[in-house]
């Protein structure tokens, strides 16, 4: 049978990893596919004498590569937005299947890209775009296909989870750990995408779309980073039996879909609360199977290449079938069956809260605070009153039951208006994640 | 497009669950497949007035059902061996795809069944046969297709894990918890399959085959149950920083493949050590992605039906493609590419050990024991000497580094021959499961 020809665009960490993996595991992969896979082109500007590139055409003319006759599948692992979008579009227009790890591209332009792919009868595969080597796209699109998915919650940014883990294990401050993560290569020189939750929001956009059968809607994700977390809050949460994780959460409600990325308290006994370091995990609640969890490496050359090459294997099978009917729909559901369920505004979301209120150590403050919450219909699950700080200020920590965010917003305005309260209320959302 | 017709054989827990799930989530499933799925026949002996069976032909003549023209996919969820094998064989010979949850049937007769399916150009899907609703078959066959899988370790029998969890959490005795599990419906009246590890061995056989691309070889699985575990051992393991789980382990070594089911100490900080109750989890170590873990419900109507119906969705896609090239090979690798790597005999396997030796409280016993281990080349990682029992007997607990089993067998013979040792040495294997 004719071999399948690949072009790898980009020879950074992921591109080089995919090249090496295809070469190292060629025999094992051919045992699976029954068909030879050949790398015909590589798109790169830098020479890479450390890689085995014999018999591969190397060039920096990406548009020519994607148009070449001896290219069946284009692997876009350059990252970035503008050029990536151009080459992916050109590849599709020339009838090539595409494999991409580019979560930003898909979260922001995926709807147009998938529509173009349907039009040209090609497939765009993106397992590597979310949670690295964990096959979460396949699980959601195929493995859980019988289920109505109710919600999912994921640790989908390894850098953020490394920082949170170090803060907890060693009581370290955020900035201190971030600096170390940069030295270790876990965090970029500009860590904004990771620590402000933008990278997680890109990934959550994709997960939510395939979980619920809705178009990609990145701009509607409520996104909050981890930069304001203190070691103190991490410790108080611990004392109350919780861990703080930076979660991406997508949930169906009667009114619409919640899409949100923010630091979240979760009960320490949950398996996902024990996912530490740079690892990723996604917890999915579905109607038939109940809760399932998927754990593994979310980044790195090997794990990302694993996902890229799994997509290649799927596409080789699809090409062998030579029929579009065999392909799994891009967003798990048929393109004409996507739903227009609204995405909820942030203040319409429902969640529990951890509140830390630094109050003057005067009588009646706790009564005032609990009175405000009570009148707002907010129930308190736990109270932790700590010994006074310096200058007679007392941190009061409260855990509340789930409440609509607008009710909490209003209550916090009232609490901050109390005479005994002079600093802003620290609030962190809390999810029980019980299936 | 023509609807796809299903026959469900068996209306027990799983069959009724699959029927309900297909009916309840029909709209969501059609959104995914783009094609209507219709249940045309049900094979059952008992009337089920509690189910919605309008428009479905019900009969107990299973062989006629699988031959019927208005059946495209046969769902075998009766269990058992003889009749199940007959109807699956007959269905395949009549060109029907098959979905089965029958792990015993596949582990013991899968090689013939898959060969027959290849010959008749149909597919036999079996996601529900292992770990219930966790899509572990899909993950291993497709999601990790780029990887050379090195080993996997799974909690793949929920009954056993429930018993182990209760023993640990509450210090209860094995028989006591087993009796409760039977009352709760977690364990059968005859619990042999669960507590002796046979059910786990069936599942491990299937997992190993698709992980390594080897034929199904149930008879070569080393299988040890949990009936001999004592609350005391669970507690000592705990004091040493370990949990005991009943694991199915498949591992490539230079000499062959280890296939084994036995109680296993694992470090308490591993995620899989924290999988409790009736839940299942499979930890997979692969060369590119490293360790990944898959967690969820391993049994029950909803989870098993979730897996059955996911297989149906895959088959509908395959039928729509009308080309055999699109199907994933039954055992993940092409049938002519299966490997004849030998399965290791039990005494050739390598593992760490927990040893509990009840010795007379006389001087020199510990020196004798450690001397025997030292001469056998077995290194000790930890020693826990407990206060004397009644009658002056002292339990000595040792943790060893990995060693070939035959060396340990020989050392235990020597230890048991010591004058100060009058009861058999309790041994439990130990795995670090570090990726």
Quick synopsis:
With 435 residues, chain A is α/β, with parallel strands linked by helices. Chain A has helices at 13-24, 26-33, 62-67, 82-93, 103-119, 136-143, 158-170, 174-184, 192-195, 198-212, 231-239, 301-321, 365-375, 405-416, and strands at 4-9, 37-43, 57-59, 73-76, 97-100, 124-125, 149-155, 222-223, 242-252, 257-267, 279-286, 290-297, 350-360, 380-385, 393-404, 426-430.
Structural descriptors:
25% strand, 435 residues, alpha/beta, homodimer, 6-stranded parallel beta sheet, Rossmann fold, 10-stranded mixed beta sheet, 3 domains, Alpha-Beta Plaits, Dihydrodipicolinate Reductase, domain 2, 16 strands
Walk me through what this model shows.
The structure is a homodimer of 435-residue chains. By secondary structure, the first copy, chain A, is an alpha/beta fold. The first copy, chain A, is 37% helix and 25% strand. Chain A is built from 14 helices and 16 strands. Chain A has helices spanning 13-24, 26-33, 62-67, 82-93, 103-119, 136-143, 158-170, 174-184, 192-195, 198-212, 231-239, 301-321, 365-375, 405-416; strands at residues 4-9, 37-43, 57-59, 73-76, 97-100, 124-125, 149-155, 222-223, 242-252, 257-267, 279-286, 290-297, 350-360, 380-385, 393-404, 426-430. The first copy, chain A, is elongated, with a radius of gyration of 24 Å. Strand 12 of chain A pairs antiparallel with strand 12 (290-297) of chain B.
């Amino acid at each position: 049978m004719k071999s399948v020809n690949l072009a790898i665009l980009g020879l950074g960490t992921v591109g080089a990893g995919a090249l090496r993996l295809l070469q190292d595991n060629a025999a094992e992969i051919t045992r699976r596919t029954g068909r030879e896979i050949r790398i015909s082109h590589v798109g790169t500007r830098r020479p890479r004498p450390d890689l085995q590139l014999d018999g591969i055409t190397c060039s920096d003319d990406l548009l020519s590569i994607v148009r070449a006759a001896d290219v069946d599948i284009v692997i876009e692992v350059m990252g970035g937005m503008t050029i990536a979008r151009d080459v992916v579009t050109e590849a599709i227009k020339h009838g090539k299947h595409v494999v991409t790890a580019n979560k930003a591209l898909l979260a922001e332009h995926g709807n147009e890209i998938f529509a173009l792919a349907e039009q040209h009868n090609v497939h765009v595969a993106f397992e590597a775009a979310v949670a690295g080597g964990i096959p979460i796209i396949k699980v959601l699109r195929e493995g859980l296909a019988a289920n109505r998915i109710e919600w999912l919650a994921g640790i989908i940014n390894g850098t953020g989870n490394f920082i949170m883990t170090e803060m907890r294990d060693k009581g370290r401050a955020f900035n201190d750990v971030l600096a170390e993560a940069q030295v270790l290569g876990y965090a970029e020189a500009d860590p904004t995408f990771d620590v402000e939750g933008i990278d997680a929001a890109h990934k959550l956009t994709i997960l939510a779309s395939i979980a619920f059968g809705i178009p990609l809607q990145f701009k509607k994700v409520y996104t909050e980073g981890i930069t304001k977390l203190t070691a103190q809050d991490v410790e108080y949460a611990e004392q109350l039996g919780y861990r703080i994780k930076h979660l991406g959460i997508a949930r169906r409600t009667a009114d619409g879909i919640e899409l949100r990325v923010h630091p979240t308290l979760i009960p320490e006994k949950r398996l996902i609360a024990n996912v530490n370091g740079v690892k990723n995990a996604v917890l999915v609640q579905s109607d038939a199977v109940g809760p399932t969890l998927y754990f593994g490496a979310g980044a790195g050359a090997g794990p990302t290449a694993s996902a890229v090459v799994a997509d290649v294997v799927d596409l080789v099978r699809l090409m062998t079938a030579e029929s579009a009917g065999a392909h799994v729909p891009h967003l798990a559901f048929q393109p004409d069956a996507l739903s227009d369920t609204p995405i909820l505004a942030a203040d319409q979301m429902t969640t529990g809260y951890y509140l830390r209120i630094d109050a003057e150590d005067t009588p009646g403050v706790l009564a005032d605070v609990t009175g405000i919450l009570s009148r707002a219909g907010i129930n308190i699950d736990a109270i932790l009153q700590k010994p006074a700080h310096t200058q007679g200020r007392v941190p009061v920590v409260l855990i509340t039951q789930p409440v609509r965010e607008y009710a909490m917003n209003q209550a916090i305005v009232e609490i901050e208006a109390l005479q005994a309260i002079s600093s802003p209320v620290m609030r962190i959302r809390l999810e029980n994640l019980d299936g």
